[in-house]
Amino acid sequence: MKKAFTASLFIALLLVLYSQFSELAYKLGFAELKLVAVLENSEKMKVKCDAYSLGFFDEIKLQNKFQKCINTYEAEGYKLVSRSDT
Predict the structure, then answer these.
(1) Which among 46, 60, 66, 85 is least buried, having the fewest CB atoms inside 10 angstroms?
(2) How far apart are CA 4 and CA 64, in angstroms?
(3) Does pTM top 0.70 for this prediction?
(4) 46: which strand partners?
(5) Are 48 and 38 in contact (CB under 8 A)?
(6) C-alpha to C-alpha distances, 65 to 12, 15, 75, nearest whole angstrom
(7) Which residues, at least 6 apart from 7, have a Cβ–Cβ distance to it below 8 Å?
(8) DSSP string covering the chain
């Protein structure tokens, strides 16, 4: 019984520390960015452009690379079906 209580307190402490650490990390510029786009052509063939980064990164460069992928496929006749920015 004493071990279960100690384990519960330890887990609660870890959750509090984790929530405070992640909030502080985001304030200092640590972030996650995930971009996904699905494109489809007239023959129903699908392609996917995606970009993902975790940590300290240049968001503008990442978005430019992602948009370049989309533009390349749209030049080949693909149409944007769905896009997700997280």
Answers:
(1) 60
(2) 51
(3) no
(4) 40
(5) yes
(6) 41, 36, 15
(7) none
(8) -HHHHHHHHHHHHHHHHHHHHHHHHHHTT-EEEEEEEEEE-TT--EEEEEEEEEES--HHHHHHHHHHHHHHHHHTT-EEEEEEE-
The whole-angstrom distance between residue 10's C-alpha and the CA centroid of its chain comes to 30
Q: Which two three-digit tokens encode residue 27?
A: 């304030």
Q: Which whole number is the average pLDDT over 40-69?
A: 92
Q: Which has more pLDDT, 28 or 36?
A: 36
59 has pLDDT over 80 = yes
- pLDDT score recorded for residue 34: 93
Identify residue 12 by its one-letter amino acid code. Answer: A
The structure tokens listed for 43 are 């023959």
pLDDT, average across residues 55-65: 88
The residue-averaged pLDDT of 1-18 equals 83
